Amino acid sequence: MMSDALIDIQAVRHSYRTASGPLPVLDGLELSVPEGGFVAVVGPSGCGKSTLTRLVAGLLIPDEGEVRVHGSRITAPRSNVGMAFQNPVLLEWRTILQNVLLPLEIVPTKLTKAEGEARARKLLALVGLEGFENKRPSELSGGMKQRASLCRALIHSPEVLILDEPFGALDAFTREDLWQIMHRVKAEEPFTGILITHDLRESIFLADQVVVLSGRPAKTQFVLDIPDTGLRTLDDLYTPIAAERLNILRHQIEVAQGRIPAEAVT
Amino acid sequence: MKLRQILVPLVAVIVFLIAWEALVWSMGWPNYKMASPSDLLPAYERYWGLFLTMGWQTLWRTVVGLVLAVIFGTALGMVMGFSRTMRDALYPLLVGFNAVPKATVVPIVALMFVGWHDFNTVLIAFIISFFPIAVSVSIGLSTLEPEYRDILRSLGASQATIFWKIALPKTLPEFFGALKVSVTLAFIGTNLMEIVSPHGRGLGALFDSGKTNSDYPLMFAVLIALAFLGIVLYYLVVALEKTFAGWADRTV
């Protein structure tokens, strides 16, 4: 059955081969993200969230089930994804500008060199890194590196943006800064994205849908929709409705961890 | 700033020479026990032509051996860095090979290729110096964080692109660190062969002739000439490092 989702993951099963036999990480994973949607995926540690990002990027092919982007089945890496990880992995021998331009050296692009550079400068300005174009990564703070890494993920206007705990290693204030920057970026440069995170506040602040995965092997356990109410501010995290959503998610995580039975939260 | 960078080491060298001269003078050592810097000047004066030709012999053979070590060491390091199986297979062999004292290999190679003086000298310089390069390149490649690979692979980059854009530049600081060690090793290799080979050439042979003729100041003069060549080559590597891997230096 075809759906109108941009990213569509149906009945995916996947196991890793280990010395002591196959280790199932995903079993019955369902996930679909409409065009322009932003889905946060939360779940207990080691439940296979990163495996999910590798599947969408085409870096891994699932044992069973299918991963489709724009209706076509992913069987190999395609150039239409942008990725950012907890480790910003910037190339230290390049300037920030050259780092952001890296994807344009690899994917087919219609942009000329000058146009690419202009776009990179525009993105850097959007995340507040104007004036840092010619600095080396070693001269930037952790939060700034992460912002540069985000620009690199967006430079080639990917169909899918995959964020694997990009703010996980940052301090709380820097993280909240970056959440707001993400909203600004999404308004200016609309994208379809998947965000892997451990932070429930982050998930309800950034995403329009939060998917809770069960413990390993992971399946889709619970889906929470966050209706679009326009631009969000940090104040929105301290409202009764936000508290209610966080509570729901927290209980679902406890279920996923096996600490309380599923019936207790229904 | 530039002037200071030249002056400070220069003053250090002069202080060292004065201390050396003073030590020999105050202890009253004869020149066969320990020659003093003032004994060396006549030696350089008398043999400067020999020093030039022999010094050149030593230098070019060391450099050729080193270049071969870089090519072979990098290739070997790449094979071991990218393939776990090759690493498991080659490491014990390589470590065993490196553990053999090269002083014992020199006479064997000298005999094996007797008469091919240039060849066996370059060969020893190469054998003695490729190990650190191979190890550093393989470690540099095998410790590349998977995210680096994933960033490029998700864009559809080939293995070759990943190597040129990321793995190679990321390994350069380790590579140059190893090359600095290899430069000194290659000099040791060249000189061992020059000393051991019958009818050898190069500074090692000059050292040997000083020994047979009981010309002790000449032997010390050769040591200083070798130190000078070593410094020149070392700083050449430093200059290359600054050009290609200067980004890794956090002290500036």
Automatic annotation (TrEMBL), chain A:
CDD domains: ABC_NrtD_SsuB_transporters. One of its GO terms (molecular function) is ATP hydrolysis activity. The keyword DNA damage does not apply. Residues 7-240 form the ABC transporter domain. It comes from Pontivivens marinum. Keywords: ATP-binding, Nucleotide-binding, Transport. This is NitT/TauT family transport system ATP-binding protein. InterPro entries: AAA+_ATPase, ABC_transporter-like_ATP-bd, ABC_transporter-like_CS, ABC_transporter_ATP-bind, P-loop_NTPase. PANTHER family: ALIPHATIC SULFONATES IMPORT ATP-BINDING PROTEIN SSUB, TAURINE IMPORT ATP-BINDING PROTEIN-RELATED. Pfam families: ABC_tran.
TrEMBL record, chain B:
Keywords: Cell membrane, Membrane, Transmembrane, Transmembrane helix, Transport. It is found in: Cell membrane. It is a multi-pass membrane protein. The keyword Membrane applies. Its main location: membrane. Belongs to the binding-protein-dependent transport system permease family. GO terms for cellular component: plasma membrane. The lineage of its organism: Bacteria, Pseudomonadati, Pseudomonadota, Alphaproteobacteria, Rhodobacterales. The chain crosses the membrane at residues 7-28, 59-82, 89-116, 122-144, 175-196, 216-237. One of its GO terms (biological process) is transmembrane transport. It comes from Pontivivens marinum. Pfam families: BPD_transp_1. This is NitT/TauT family transport system permease protein. It comes from the Bacteria. Residues 55-237 form the ABC transmembrane type-1 domain.
